[in-house]
Amino acid sequence: MAERGLVREWRPDHPLDLAGVLAPLRRGRGDPAFVTAGHGAPIWRASTSPDGPVTTRLHRRVDGAVVATAWGPGAEWALDGLPALLGADDRPEDFVAHHPLVADAARRRPGLRFGATRRVWDVLVPAVLEQKVTGIEARRSWRELCRRYGDPAPGPAPAGLRVPPTPEQLRAVPDWEWHRAGVDLARRRTILACAAVASRLERAVELGGAEGRALLRTVPGVGVWTAAEVAQRAWGDADAVSFGDFHIPALVGWALLGRPIDDSEMAEVLAPYAPQRQRAVRLVEVSGFRRPRFGPRYSPRNFRAI
């Protein structure tokens, strides 16, 4: 019976883009904790939970119902949170677009919602890994940490699916292994500082909003950007803008104003969208708009050679 897993069917009463809602949880195509074969295929996630590791398989039936099957000690907890994970608590109907591009994207993507994993730790570690490095570097580090220190996903999971390393597992990683995974000293210190108070940081989900983000920022090395990246995923914070991002201000500026802007100008442009400023950013990102490129891409650094 355990091999068969626990099953829950949930039928949303709103448009739902299953892959689009879950996409922010995937850290690149090679993410060991998130596996899918492509459009329409089941999505497999491995995660931690208050009760232990869990594997969740999700797919959408032709009648619109979402079927989730879960294995592992955290299976019941994961299935209880299925509606929240798929954005049932989100309020896109309250969103008002103030720019044609945003309005058009909202019209074309009605099923794009902010889901909530209800779990800080699993999204906090990859967010810290993404600080001040390229996505290629961060995803490589995440893959190595999951594959080498995360446990195999419970149940009949696809080959290679791994549970993200727990705080205890990462605190036991030797210094030279962090170096081998391409993680510099600053990000390593931040992850270890988070690991030391990981259970307390989970309360951010209960607090939500600015209070939840403020709790995360009590950890040295967790700033506005990292807290926002966690908030968007852990409790579906549609107002948590990733200020300090290398790309987002330019994208938003070119898309909405026809020129590049900085964080302060972006705050002004997005102010009318409060309390759903990040939804406006997300819609710009999925709109298909591409800003002009005038220079070479930022080159990854090889921390293994330092």
UniProtKB/TrEMBL annotation:
Keywords: DNA damage, DNA repair. GO terms for biological process: base-excision repair, AP site formation; DNA alkylation repair. One of its GO terms (molecular function) is alkylated DNA binding. This is 3-methyladenine DNA glycosylase/8-oxoguanine DNA glycosylase. One of its GO terms (cellular component) is cytoplasm. Gene3D superfamilies: Hypothetical protein, domain 2 (1.10.340.30).
